[in-house]
Design brief:
The complex is a heterodimer of chains A (95) and B (493). Chain A has 95 residues and is mainly α. Helix content of chain A is 35%, strand content 4%. Chain A has a two-stranded antiparallel ribbon with strand order 1-2. In chain A, β1 and β2 form a beta hairpin. Chain A is flat. By secondary structure, chain B is of the alpha/beta class. Chain B is built from 15 helices and eleven strands. An eight-stranded mixed beta sheet of chain B has the order 4-6-5-10-11-9-7-8, with helices on both faces. A three-stranded mixed beta sheet of chain B has the order 1-3-2, with helices on both faces. In chain B, α5 packs parallel to α6, α7 packs antiparallel against α15 and α9 packs across α12. The radius of gyration of chain B is 21 Å and the shape is globular. The chains are: A mainly alpha (95), B alpha/beta (493). At the A-B interface, α1 and α2 of A face α9, α10, α11, α12 and α13 of B.
Chain lengths: 95, 493
């Protein structure tokens, strides 16, 4: 399958990355080239093979449901581009 | 007095303990080298005051008889590790100015062991790249030059290219690296140093800027195998803050070093003899086989039938995980924010990410978004995860016949900056030998094996069974002792 300009714009939108018309056009052959190459995986017979989800056998640990830190609001907000009244500030979301 | 910056980690440690010199003298020597090497662009941030502070603490500790494992050793820290109070950028514009209020587990362990920080080392942006040409803060330059008078600036490898360049140029005796598909081993190979990616889960990923979480693993880079063992002992260990961290004791790798390989069997994977591999790489591999035989090992040919599928598998799984991990950079909580006039929240996200990410990062996020999108998820992502199972199974079968694998680290010596940049696919192919072990989570290291006809370093890769870093280090030591690699770049910077 091949990616066209519309698909690139759709992926960019899903990725939350704005692209110019020129950038999108440049990405069409680039992404197609990479995708054409990865498509060779389709020839591998994977009948009965489980997808790998963990490389090293390891069980998921559970920890006690308690607060181990907290009261560090200023540290959490220290790198915020915009913080007001102890909150992260964003542009208006609802009209 | 000898130049202290030529000493290895072990030599600095032992000389400092013996009272031959002070930690401050060591730190001052490296600080001076760092300050004089701007042309290499290996550091994004220099922290000479932190190196001196740790050195003074080490000198005081020595006087009080309270030495720590890395007392007196200044190191470089890859700028992918969050360091409290020091800017951490992952070489991106997105995180420019980000000053963590916390310390990554690995860097915290190294400081607790007495090490000092010389600065934050440059890398490929978000660790995505094999040449250090994707950093927002400019390319890192290898200290090496081709011997034919060609003055081309060479790639130090990637993504840990600031680390490799700095160690090779004696700006630090050791540094941290991270390896997702070969980002410790390939740069080590390009500059003639050693580096080990331990078993996935040995080193905590907490506080390390994430790229592809099922692959990312921290490890050390240094000029000798012993130094790697020392560093790794002080980086590894269980961390309750990382759910994939292995709850196991850290072996005493340095004490366990032995280059006697009697009783060990080394597998040579026949599928690694790829078409078009330079004769010099082939010759190096043969030399490595001879070294290991000389050290007492038996050598057998083994088969890893799915090797050719490792790279395409990697370039589905890594971007898929990256697209998810990098969703956190949206201009709200940290990093850059680009807010066009009258923009809403969605516009702010899109503008911020367009301005903050470099081209390679955008390319991988978009690839990842595509392979995870509805309609393509099973065809690409699930298929890649299944092939990953087969690649891992290949290693399990090979390790029924042998204890370790020996391969070249990279298909070529260092290439010139700009040489492969135009074609992303050509760049990806540089990781052909390192990616399979990453997909399987196995410990693997690169050790210098010799020089090519142009006088550039070539590395040999040793891959071990899960959790068997000791055998990997020991085989590395056997090669190190026999290769007698002492070449170093002529100082031009």
């Amino acid at each position: 399958m091949s990616i066209d300009l519309q698909t690139v714009k759709k992926i960019a939108s899903l990725s939350r990355i704005s692209v110019t018309e020129d950038e999108a056009q440049a990405m069409v052959p680039e992404l197609n080239n990479i995708l054409g190459w990865v498509e060779q995986l389709g020839e591998v017979d994977v009948t009965g093979v489980e997808p790998m989800t963990a490389v090293i056998p390891n069980h998921l640990r559970l920890r006690d449901d308690v607060v181990t830190d907290g009261n560090i609001r200023d540290r959490v907000l220290a790198n915020a581009p915009q913080a007001e009244h102890g909150f992260f500030a964003v542009p208006k979301v609802i009209e | 007095m000898t130049d202290l910056t030529n000493l290895t980690v072990a030599e600095i440690r032992d000389g400092f303990r013996a009272g031959d010199f002070s930690a401050r003298e060591v730190a001052e020597g490296f600080n001076a080298n760092v300050a004089a090497a701007k042309a290499l662009n290996a550091f994004i941030v220099e922290t000479p005051e932190k190196a001196l502070e740790a050195a003074d603490a080490a000198d005081a500790d020595r006087a009080a008889g309270m030495l720590k494992p890395l007392s007196g050793i200044p190191i470089g820290m890859k700028d992918l590790f969050c360091t409290e109070g020091t800017q951490t950028t992952a070489a991106s514009h997105m995180l420019e100015g980000f000053v963590p209020t916390y310390e990554s587990t690995v860097s915290g362990k190294l400081w607790a062991a007495g090490a000092g920080m010389l600065g934050k080392l440059n890398l490929d942006q978000f660790a995505m790249g094999s040449s250090n040409e994707t950093s927002y803060f400019g390319n890192v330059i290898s200290p090496w030059k081709r011997g034919d008078g060609d003055n081309a600036a060479l790639a130090p490898g990637g993504s840990s290219g600031g680390s490799s360049s700095a160690i090779s140029a004696r700006l630090c005796p050791a540094a941290t690296g991270t390896d997702t598909g070969g980002s410790i081993r390939q740069p080590a190979s390009f500059v003639g140093i050693s580096g080990i990616k331990p078993t996935y889960g040995r080193c905590s990923r907490w506080g390390v800027v994430a790229f592809a979480s099922s692959l990312d693993q921290a490890g050390p880079m240094a000029r000798t195998i012993r130094d790697n063992a020392i560093m790794l002992e002080n980086m590894a260990g269980f961390d309750p803050k990382d759910a994939t961290s292995l709850d196991l004791a850290v072996p005493q790798w340095e004490a366990g070093l032995s280059s006697n390989l009697a009783g060990k069997t080394i597998g040579i994977p026949k599928e690694y003899r790829v078409d078009g591999m330079p004769a010099e790489i082939e010759a190096l591999w043969e030399k490595g086989i001879a070294f290991l035989k000389d050290a007492g090992a038996d050598v057998v040919e083994v088969s890893l039938p799915h090797t050719k599928y490792a790279l395409p598998t990697y370039y589905i799984i890594a971007p898929a995980e990256a697209s998810s991990n990098l969703a956190r950079y949206d201009g709200v909580r940290y990093g850059q924010r680009d807010l066009p006039d009258g923009a809403g929240l969605q516009d702010m996200y899109a503008a911020t990410r367009a301005a903050g990410f470099g081209p390679e990062v955008k390319r991988r996020i978009m690839m990842g978004t595509y392979v995870l999108s509805a309609g393509f998820y099973d065809a690409y992502y699930t298929q890649a995860q299944k092939v990953r199972t087969l690649i891992s199974r290949d290693f399990d079968r090979a390790f029924e016949k042998c204890d370790l694998l020996l391969t070249p680290t990279a298909p070529s010596a260092a290439f010139a900056l700009g040489e492969k940049q135009a074609d992303p696919l050509a760049m990806y192919l540089n990781d052909v030998f390192t990616v399979p072990a990453s997909l399987a989570g196995l410990p693997a290291m690169s050790v210098p094996g010799g020089l090519d006809a142009q006088g550039l370093p070539l590395g040999l890769q040793i891959i071990g069974k899960a959790l068997d870093e000791q055998s990997v280090l020991n085989a590395g030591l056997a090669i190190e002792e026999r290769a007698g690699f002492t070449a170093r770049p002529d100082k031009w910077w």
